[in-house]
Amino acid sequence: MSGSVGTDQAHTYEEWLIAVKKDGSLFADVPRELITLEMCLAAVNAWGEALNYVPLEYQTVEVCLAAVTYKGSAIYYTPGNLLTFEVCLAAVKQWSQAIYQVPEELRNEEMYIASVSHKMNRLKWVPPSRRTLKVCLEAVSCYPASIHYSPYSILEMICEETK
User: Fold this and answer.
1) Domain count across the chain
2) Do 144 and 85 share a structural domain?
3) Are 72 and 6 in the same domain?
4) Is the same domain home to 70 and 145?
5) 3-state secondary structure 61-76
6) What separation in angstroms does the CA of 77 have from each of 65, 88, 95, 136?
7) Are 31 and 49 in contact (CB under 8 A)?
8) Which candidate in 15, 30, 43, 107 could, as Cys together with 11 as Cys, close a disulfide (CB 3.0–4.6 Å)?
9) 18-47 pLDDT, tens per residue?
10) Which stretches in the chain have pLDDT values below 50?
11) Residue 53 · residue 41 · CB < 8 Å
12) Where a domain ends, among 62, 82, 104?
């Protein structure tokens, strides 16, 4: 293929695959008959939001995991039945705000630790009942001002741990 893929001319599967691997946003223009699992994975690995264009029959845990690992906000395009702990954790590790899309039953200490592990004050958004010593220690180590949102009952332990 010479130049870039244009939507006005026919292209082979291989040409589209190469193009999508370079620019996942081109996936939206791939003719339906050329879409395969391989093409979907290539697209979401290059552009997480390509998940929004993946046909339902190709929306799998594997494809969703690849999408959110690349771009945590792709969790918005992940069907509810595919929001596994692994998919959600990968999304939160990539983008802390993904925690708001995680089903409540999957929000455990590990998930909250991942959400506060970013260089910003996310502890204030963790429900007080979920602010465990481990969660608070992680938050304070990443963003010291988070100590202001730590429960009073564990402040002394946090101070001891961070000496």
Assistant:
1) 2
2) no
3) yes
4) no
5) HHHHHHHHHHCHHHHH
6) 11, 12, 14, 30
7) no
8) 15
9) 999 999 999 999 999 999 999 999 999 999
10) 1-3
11) no
12) 104
